[in-house]
Write a structure and sequence with these properties.
By secondary structure, this protein is an alpha/beta fold. The protein has helices at residues 30-40, 55-60, 65-74, 77-86, 103-108, 111-114, 135-145, 206-212, 224-233, 235-238, 256-268, 274-286, and strands spanning 2-4, 24-25, 28-29, 45-50, 91-96, 119-122, 126-128, 148-154, 164-170, 176-184, 195-203, 241-245, 250-252. It has 2 domains: 1-126 and 253-272, Spore Coat Polysaccharide Biosynthesis Protein SpsA, Chain A (Alpha-Beta Complex), CATH 3.90.550; 133-247, Spore Coat Polysaccharide Biosynthesis Protein SpsA, Chain A.
């Protein structure tokens, strides 16, 4: 499940008429990276929670026969393959969120689609490098421990106030911790650790019952973190909450500066773009004050 109902106000006016999830990251929209990550982890059924004016998302993953025929007639097999790739990734469904009442409410909108199954939630602002798989590890841990699993990442202590922070206990795996509590955007002095929650979750279906009883919190929104706190405090509900500590490459496209950095980093890693881009950037960087 991918929540994509946000207004993208940080990127106005670019997002006035275009969903933020469709902002290009090199030559693919950000949401396609997220869908491809899910597919790589073995997921072939994807629900996208959208808001008004998000039809471009559905259009991107649909067939465009006129464009396909044009590229085929031109003999441009490479572009044709890339165009058709996005429309054959998975079974992709769309549900409107209605009132924008927070991430917890968006997850609740998936209840009828998910049913009584464990499911993954992938936030579109976080792109995980496909060379550093995360979701597969999370799914394996959830299956083995019969528990909810969230993704954690070490951040500098002075940055923890930008994230939810996890109180944790070690397990037999150095990359897996048991989550005993969660604090939303704490001051550095109050943070239980420097392990920040990033935008990947593997949730058991019991989360729906908890969310339905979760009152609105900050911003009058239903917070997923509040529901996870309930699960972390009582392992009897759904096996508790565990965290997979991610130590790989992550690109944040939810902030303007980080978005620009993400585009540059991913382009530099490309064989077709990296060498020329690096050659252009080096003298440019050398001349900066």
């Amino acid at each position: 499940m991918i929540p994509a109902a946000g207004l993208g106000t940080r990127f106005l006016p670019a997002t006035k008429a275009m969903p933020k999830e469709m902002l290009p990251v090199v030559d693919k929209p950000a949401i396609q990276y997220v869908v491809e990550e899910a597919v790589s982890a073995g997921i072939d059924d994807i629900l996208v929670i959208i808001g008004r004016n998000k039809n471009a998302l559905a259009n991107h993953f649909d067939r465009v026969t006129e464009l396909e025929h044009t590229l085929e007639a031109k003999g441009d097999a490479s572009k044709l393959e890339r165009v058709m790739h996005s429309s054959s990734l998975a079974d992709i469904h769309f549900v409107r969120q209605g009132d924008p009442r927070g991430l917890g409410h968006a997850v609740l909108r998936a209840k009828k689609h998910v049913g009584n199954e464990t499911f993954a939630v992938l936030l579109g602002d976080d792109l995980i490098d496909d060379r550093d798989p995360l979701l597969t590890k999370m799914i394996d841990e959830s299956t083995e421990r019969a528990a909810t699993v969230i993704a954690l990442m070490e951040v500098e202590p002075d940055q923890i106030h930008m994230y939810g922070a996890a109180a944790v206990e070690p397990t037999d795996d150095p990359d897996v911790v048991r989550v005993t509590g969660l604090v939303e955007k704490p001051a550095a002095a109050d943070a239980p650790s420097n392990l920040a929650i990033i935008g990947r979750y593997v949730l058991r279906p019991e989360i729906f019952d908890v969310l339905e009883e979760t009152p609105p919190g900050k911003g009058d929104e239903i917070q997923l973190t509040d529901a996870l706190q309930v699960l972390a405090a009582d392992e009897q509900i759904a096996g508790g909450v565990y965290g997979v500590v991610f130590r790989g490459r992550r690109y944040d496209t939810g902030d303007r500066l980080d978005y620009i950095k993400s585009v540059l980093l991913l382009a530099l890693d490309r064989d077709d773009l990296g060498p020329d881009l690096a050659a252009w950037l080096k003298p440019l960087a050398a001349g900066l004050p």
